[in-house]
Design a protein that fits this description.
- It is a single chain.
- The chain is about 40% helix and about 20% strand.
- By secondary structure, the protein is an alpha/beta fold.
- It has a single domain, classed as Metal-dependent hydrolases (TIM Barrel), CATH 3.20.20.
- Strands 1-2-3-4-5-6-7-8 form an eight-stranded parallel β-sheet.
- β4, α5 and β5 form a beta-alpha-beta unit.
- It is globular, with a radius of gyration of 17 Å.
- The chain starts with a strand and ends in a 5-residue tail after the last helix.
Length: about 260
């Protein structure tokens, strides 16, 4: 049997919350029962990134890897502590992010977002790590900065919500594209059009949990077990066998993050 990989999730709040390790382990046990054997836990600031790394040390029924970074919402923070975590080269550290640009919420000034994004691109180059990008309502500047700074060889646009043209621009730069539960939402027709155009060997699936639970689970906290719902929806949308999409997306994520066995 082949398994799904959740290419992007945020389980740190649960891990560090009242339930602690037991609650996190129960979530990961449900993931395994749902056909998921690998998850990548993503950082958004220095403390959150340290928690992502700590999660990789759990006695877990699935493989857990970590990415450290500074989210565009937090771009006014000092990148130094995140860079120090990255340079420590934890054995389960596989990427830098999530970084990027968010002009929808604009919780940080655009100039700070652009500066911090460029710095994290440089860090990914320096350490030869994958780059995980958040992009919302900012594709023109995103493409411009990537073109200027140089796209790391292993780069993914996470929770892609753009148009077919946006997808084409990202693919032309060499980026992979990861799709979350938004693709199942009623008003996501342009996104579904984009998903149909992504080459199978450049596609990833994720939950972005605990956010964005897919239909029919909206309104409840998301979790890695539901990545199968996202993947099966995408397979049907694209007219592919879910087993093929499961195997290929797992292989794509293993390649992206240089996970064992690849």
């Amino acid at each position: 049997m082949s398994f799904w990989t959740d290419a992007h999730c945020h389980l740190q709040d649960q891990f560090m919350g009242d339930g602690g390790e037991a609650a996190a382990r129960a979530t990961l046990e449900r993931a395994l029962a749902g056909g998921v054997d690998r998850v990548v836990v993503i950082g958004t600031d220095a403390a959150n990134s340290a928690e992502a790394l700590a999660m990789t040390e759990l006695d877990s029924p699935v493989e857990v890897y970590a990415v450290v970074g500074l989210h565009p919402h937090d771009s006014t923070q000092d990148l130094g502590p995140v860079a120090a975590l990255a340079r420590a080269k934890h054995p389960k550290l596989v990427g830098i992010g999530e970084t990027g640009l968010d002009y929808y919420y604009e919780h940080a000034p655009r100039a700070d977002q652009r500066r911090t994004f460029a710095a994290q691109i440089a860090l990914a180059h320096e350490l030869d790590l994958a780059l995980v990008i958040h992009a919302r309502d900012a594709f023109d500047d995103l493409v411009s900065i990537l073109a200027s700074e140089g796209v790391p060889a292993r780069t993914v646009i996470h929770c892609f919500t753009g148009t077919p043209d946006d997808a084409a621009a990202c693919l032309a730069l060499g980026c992979d594209i990861s799709i979350a539960g938004v693709v199942t939402f009623k008003n996501a027709e342009l996104l579904r059009d984009a998903v149909r155009t992504i080459p199978l060997d450049r596609l990833h699936v994720e939950t972005d949990s605990p956010f964005l639970a897919p239909v029919p689970h909206r309104g409840r906290p998301n979790e890695p077990a539901l990545v199968a719902v996202v993947g099966e929806f995408i397979a049907e949308l694209r007219g592919e066998e879910s087993s093929l999409l499961r195997r290929q997306t797992a292989a794509n994520t293993a390649r992206l993050f240089r996970l064992p066995g690849q």
